Structures
1.
Amino acid sequence: MSTIARALEAPRKSYDWLVWPVVLLALTSVLYAPVLKSLVSQWWNDPDYAQGFLIPLVSVYVLWLQRDRWMNSEMRPRNFGFLVMLGAVVLLVGGSLGAELFTSRVSLLFLLAGMVLFLAGWTMLRALAFPLGFLIFMIPLPAVIYNQITFPLQLLASRVATSGLDLIRIPVLRDGNILILPNYSLEVVEACSGVRSLMTLIALAVAYGYLVDHPRWVRYALPILMVPVAIFSNALRIMGTGVLTYHFGPKAAEGFLHVFSGWMVFVVALLLLLACDWLLGKIYGDRGQIAHA
């Protein structure tokens, strides 16, 4: 039996089994220092991914809630985990050489999964599957995918906002993603496409669906429903901007009011998330209680 296996099979109360995980995590921190630095920098500088700071905290919270489950899981180290770790390092090197940030960052998740498998086996990996998998939401989308999503969302939000303004009798003409009002022209830029709220809402829906004891189909339905919720709430913000601009001039929709409206619309989106959960609860008959507590 290897030294690692003997250490991991030591009595849990002695905490000797923590030595190797701590050593490997320390080595991982050194190896991924440049990747983590660029990731945190993007969270700080890119508002679309500011929620990245919260994602690891949610994963840690889930780990704490499930501590009895994973601490009492059977420990059977698997050598296949080493191959997974090796593949993750290959992805890291390839992503670094090709200047592909997404590949380098995703390789960290594969490395963590490989470490769990190598040190503790499949049972432990299944126990930690959600907190590890949830970390994918802290990684920004590749630019090629982001650009494919952003522009259609801009156009869709513009269409919905135009229809809303027509309903409340505010004259507006849409030219692509530009809303032309009698006294001003509003451009629906990338920041107003809804990607920011969409990614955050999907992450929240996934975490909420997991923490609340729902049937599996409800856990899948909630993130899917966040797509129209994000589109509607963002269109509502554009409509509000249009109303303020029409009645009080463009300055009324800038500065503090523009930022404040963003927060208010996000609160509306959260309420819609809870409303979707309530409606789905009516379908399956039991909203459930907080799980893993």
2.
Amino acid sequence: MAVKRFIPALLKSRCANLYIVGSRDVEKAHQIANQFNCGKYGTYNDVFINKDVDVVYISTPITLREELTVSAIKNNKHVICEKPAFTSFKTASNLVDLSQEYSVRILDGWSFKYHKQHEIVKKHIESGAIGDIKFFTGQFTYPQPASGDIRLDPELGGGVFFDSAGYPVAASQMYIANRPISVFCLKNFDDKYSVDNFVSIQIQYENNVNTIAIAGFGLQYNSTYSITGTKGRISVNRAYAVDEKMNTTINIERNNEFEEITVPPQNQFSSMIDDFCYKIIRNRSLDKNSVNDLFNHLRIMDAALNSSENDKHIFL
């Protein structure tokens, strides 16, 4: 993700630049630094202690992210962490407290949220185009990862739940403000690799609003969500992983009327980086809305994990 998406976007940023590359393997750091014409490289610690570094991006396997985020914060660095940055509400709460102690920002890097198509969807919903929201369904499925991929390694937090299930859940929370009441989660497992390869999460909210979020691999690629209201439905046909050269489309259905909106290409990683940097410039500390969004998301994901492990609805 760092090499294919984040660093190329960083090089196009309007307010940040690539300064140093760090890795457990210094030679690997050297190779990547050379690939992007960066003159500095070293270990993770070399990055953290460098006084000229303001922000670090962490894209290690999920099992290593908490330790590295703590080290970055304690060296007064702002942190963008590849999603999901946190495996639990407890971890997130501890790291938010630590970041506030050191007056730095941390970001759970769901880059898809920064694509302008979602802002367009939100404006149409706020205008009453589909009436009151009643049902959200989102899917993120993709072909089987290649052998050796970390998503197939249970020791590195592999599987669909941590890799992909959070996408449709996070998307639903961009539009549904109702309080969640209950969560039920079902998982299927890949016997060969001992990781979950399919996840279905059902969320019930106040006022009879419901969400179904589906994620899986070994399936046809699907990166979509749809919001059904009392007067219509609005759908995004490429919601999560969007190439910077790709047009996206939004479909709106109302009775027998159908409208398609084309959204021009955008680099959602560049938008995420610039938004994060602008917020740092304005105020180093985490804002209350960001913290609330993070905690609300993780309360649901914690409940989903609990539900799948105990095969029951979890009431919030």
